[in-house]
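Hi support team,

I'm filing this because I wasn't sure whether my run with zinc ion finished correctly. The job status page said complete, but I'd like someone to confirm that the output block is well-formed before I use it downstream. Pasting the exact inputs I used:
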Amino acid sequence: MKSGPRIHFKRDEESAIGRGAVMHGAHFRPEVASMVWAACRGSASFGWPELWVTEGWRPSSDRRDLHSELRAIDISCRHIEGDEKSRVNTAGIWAKHVASLLGPDYDVVVHGARSNLHLHVELDP
Ligand SMILES: [Zn+2]
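And here is everything the job wrote out:
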């Protein structure tokens, strides 16, 4: 059985701001957990051995998005190799795969740059 990439959750001590992926039980309700499932399924053609969830909950004061409502997660693109342009391009292809698996109730966006390049995935029906 092919199990897909291993999922890691960033820990506080691995974060430059001292806050890793803050996950709560509500992140594992089916409609939110499916974002991680889709990130894995959507990465199948790339063959990446692991994925990192780098953000779950964060205070609403940080930015205007659905992280504070436990309806968004960030998944790092650090594992994508190459120059910045090709990394952003690969992340965009991955994002399209993930979006097509999740359907219209979700937004999948490539955010950040360099070591902070990531997919922001949110449930916004
Ligand atoms: Zn985000």
